[in-house]
Design goal:
This protein is α/β, with parallel strands linked by helices. It is built from 13 helices and twelve strands. Strand 10, helix 10 (about 275-280) and strand 11 form a beta-alpha-beta unit. InterPro entries: Glyco_trans_9, LPS_LOS_Heptosyltrfase.
Length: about 350
């Protein structure tokens, strides 16, 4: 069915979000929804259904999140653990359930199985599972913004205003430790002007990955243009440098420690991957490089972040576009970061209108 009346703004206190997925990026892309629920229903408590353990790290210290239910990965291969967790979820009668993604049969099945007064999701065909079935036309392009548009549509509020950013709440102690690690790994040379602290992550999955020769060409162009910059490589989960160990590296299997180190940088450059979304959530201005996935769906938005569709461009030409963006960052000085001025960087090709639009997304 399609809702005939908007959701009430009072009387909703227990909310369940069904997003059974184990990937870091997809979990972080859920944070704008949790932020939107906090704003729409500040007196409510949110539970989250995820898969694997990563969501517990992402939603640690969120004031409106009560519990994260972590289903076992490939749950149907672990039926006892799966059914035990499902039983825990069903013990609470929720006021509202949000099925936040398009065309997810697993999320919809969980939404069907758990009792609630209101159930939200996307559907262009009649369904008796949802009390508020939003047409897919209102979803929008960006994966993080679709569930925000869903709850705004269901609540009858303005869907056009700015969307909440990706967010990860790091403690003061975590941020201080991240700064200490960065200062130890890439200290200023001989007491010179500190320069930009630039992070590089050279890994991605499948066709999203750029090869070692491409990165060598990219870094060979970027480095000379930013002679005072200090470069730190973030090492992938497999523990091997993607840049030939030419720069200091930081490795951690703990996403919160990695986020704390990212938060201490001035700029972060990465291929499209989960670590890209982690950097955005940590608050460092992030430049995502896209060669395979759809830019509009995953682009880092807001606060100085952007995405560059590289296609088949070589590392040299891509580095020049990145230098354009870094130079503009110094001029605009986004509110979440105030990097030091670039020295030696130039605006190589004027794409400023495109860049300015992306900064305001």
């Amino acid at each position: 069915m399609t809702a005939s009346q908007p959701l009430p703004r009072a009387g909703i206190y227990r909310i369940l979000v069904c997003r059974p997925n184990h990937r870091l990026g997809n979990t972080l892309l859920l944070t704008p929804l949790i932020d939107e629920l906090r704003q729409l229903y500040p007196g409510a408590e949110v539970d989250i259904v995820s898969e694997g353990d990563i969501a517990r790290d992402v939603f640690e210290d969120w004031f409106n999140v009560r519990q994260v239910f972590c289903l076992p990965r490939r749950g149907f291969k672990h039926p006892i653990a799966f059914l035990r967790t499902l039983g825990k979820i069903r013990r609470t009668r929720y006021d509202m359930i949000v099925d936040p993604v398009l065309r997810s049969g697993f999320s919809r099945t969980l939404t069907r199985l758990v009792p609630a007064r209101y159930k939200l999701g996307f559907s262009d065909v009649p369904t008796n599972v949802l009390t508020h079935a939003a047409p897919t036309a209102i979803a929008g392009a960006h994966m993080a913004q679709r569930p925000v548009n869903l709850v705004r549509w269901a609540a009858g509020v303005d869907t056009s205003r700015a969307h909440p950013p990706l967010r990860l709440f790091l403690s003061g102690a975590e941020k201080a430790e991240g700064r200490r690690v960065v200062d130890a790994l890439i200290p200023p040379a001989n007491g010179d002007e500190p320069g930009l602290r630039i992070g590089i992550f050279g890994n991605a999955t499948g066709s999203k990955r750029y090869g070692a020769p491409w990165w060598a060409e990219f870094m060979g162009t970027l480095g000379p243009a930013l002679p005072t910059a200090r470069t730190l490589e973030l090492i992938p989960a497999h523990g091997t440098s993607m840049l030939g160990t030419r720069w200091p590296g930081y490795y951690s299997s703990d996403i919160r420690r990695m986020a704390a180190v990212l938060a201490a940088l001035d700029v972060f450059i990465t291929a499209d991957c989960g670590v890209m979304h982690l950097a955005v959530a940590a608050g460092v201005p992030t430049i995502g490089l896209f060669r395979a996935t759809v830019l509009d769906v995953y682009i880092p938005y807001g606060h100085g972040n952007t995405g560059i569709h590289t296609g088949d461009a070589n590392g040299r030409d891509t580095a020049r576009r990145v230098l354009d963006w870094i130079a503009l960052l110094q001029r605009v000085a986004p509110e979440t970061s105030a990097p030091r001025p670039v020295r030696g960087g130039v605006m190589a090709s004027p794409q400023r209108a495109e860049i300015a639009r992306a900064m305001l997304m």
